[in-house]
Fold:
Amino acid sequence: MAGVQVCLIRHGIAGERGPAYPDDNLRPLTSEGVVKMERAAIGLRELFVPDVILTSPLTRSRQTAEIVADACGVRDILRCDPLANGDDAQLLREVVASGHARIACTGHEPLLSYTLSYCLTGDQGAVSSRFRKGAAALVRFDGDVAAGRGSLEWLLQPAALRAITADVSADGD
Structure:
């Protein structure tokens, strides 16, 4: 598949680990996390609208995928276990199997940083990056969707995505 874009998105601000959430898989976004992610998703929409969203099965990632889907008008959100377990080779196979050219992937740190490095270099540890909660990076594959074949288009922290939202709002006045 040629001309594929993959947008890696870290989940929004979630509840703290601890007694309130004995099962880390079930930690949800906080109300602040929802609001900030909604604003970031509107900014993201100005840069990238996915055809489909692949998401880690963890609650906070699924909630983030739903927010992005709502902002971008995406209907299909698909569970993708490699976004929770770090199997980047399988993740790229699932990207190809989706049959879409514009795929968003919602997941977790440090796994998304490893995924970005894997896409760009073929080595999960070769490139150092940091995804704050709600950050996104766009990787373009002009040829095969394979390890080391991607090119980084941009990596934006959540404040930058929310600033796009502010610019969009200002333009509409």
In short: The longest strand covers residues 4-10. The radius of gyration is 15 Å. The first helix runs from residue 31 to 47.
